[in-house]
């Protein structure tokens, strides 16, 4: 299966601080910003049902760069960090790899490699394995921590694109392996005023969420928006969450 690594999702409760970090400190650019009036049926914004936003941020267009998706849920003031995400500072950019903690490296390699086909480049060294769909793409490094992986409501998901025709066969393959690994079966997701994309949401043995999206329409959806920065700043300015919380806590 040919696939393309796309992005990793982080949740934020303060878009201004996130903007200051990613844009002002790391030098990334706002690629697109989208507002949604209700929760995502594929849980893109996490286990929350209300109004939310999505901001794509990175060093270049999504067609050619691995980027980050920042999801923000209006009214949500705190998220809990788990031990699922690994951090390893690198001497240079662009994004080289995403590091995730796992409880059993062999089981993880079986799922990511044998079931998902993410095994073009497998380099296992001790308690670590680096896997990917191809050279030149952002890799995924799995690191065994020999304890249960705790995913909390701050935990995000990693995304890959495949040809639209490969989504349903992939879902069927995972279902045959373990139906519990399918979080959201094949479904279409709408973005107001933009392209509709088809996705399948999976979970690995430790619960790490994985989004597979149809590549053809995602390339159209993910084109940089020259007004993205302005849209994000307006959304931050117009955010009513603090006022709403204050009025309801009187």
UniProtKB/TrEMBL annotation:
UniProt-listed CDD domains: GLOD4_C
Coiled-coil annotated residue ranges, if any: none
Ranges where the VOC domain occurs: 94-215
One matching Pfam family: GLOD4_C
Domain of life: Eukaryota
Keywords from the UniProt entry: Repeat
Family listed: Belongs to the glyoxalase I family.
Protein name: VOC domain-containing protein
Organism of origin: Panagrellus redivivus (Microworm)
């Amino acid at each position: 299966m040919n696939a393309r690594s796309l992005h990793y999702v982080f949740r934020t409760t303060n878009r201004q601080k996130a903007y200051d970090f990613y844009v002002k400190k790391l030098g990334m650019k706002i690629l697109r910003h989208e507002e949604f009036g209700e929760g995502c049926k594929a849980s893109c914004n996490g286990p929350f049902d209300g109004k939310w936003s999505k901001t794509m941020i990175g060093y270049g267009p999504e067609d050619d760069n691995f980027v980050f998706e920042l999801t923000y849920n209006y009214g949500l003031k705190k998220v809990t960090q788990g031990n699922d995400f690994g951090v390893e500072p690198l001497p240079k950019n662009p994004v080289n790899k995403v590091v995730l903690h796992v409880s059993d490296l062999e089981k993880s390699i079986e799922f990511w490699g044998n079931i998902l086909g993410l095994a073009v480049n497998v380099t296992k060294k001790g308690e670590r394995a680096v896997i990917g769909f191809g050279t030149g793409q952002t890799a995924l490094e799995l690191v065994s921590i020999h304890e249960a992986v705790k995913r909390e409501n701050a935990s995000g998901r990693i995304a890959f694109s495949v040809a639209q025709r490969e989504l349903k066969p992939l879902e069927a393959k995972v279902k045959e392996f373990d139906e519990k690994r399918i979080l959201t079966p094949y479904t279409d997701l709408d973005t107001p005023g933009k392209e509709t994309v088809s996705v399948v949401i999976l979970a690995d043995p430790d619960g790490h969420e994985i989004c597979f999206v149809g590549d053809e329409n995602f390339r159209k959806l993910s084109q940089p928006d020259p007004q993205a920065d302005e849209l994000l700043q307006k959304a931050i300015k117009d955010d009513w969450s603090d006022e709403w919380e204050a009025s309801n806590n009187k």
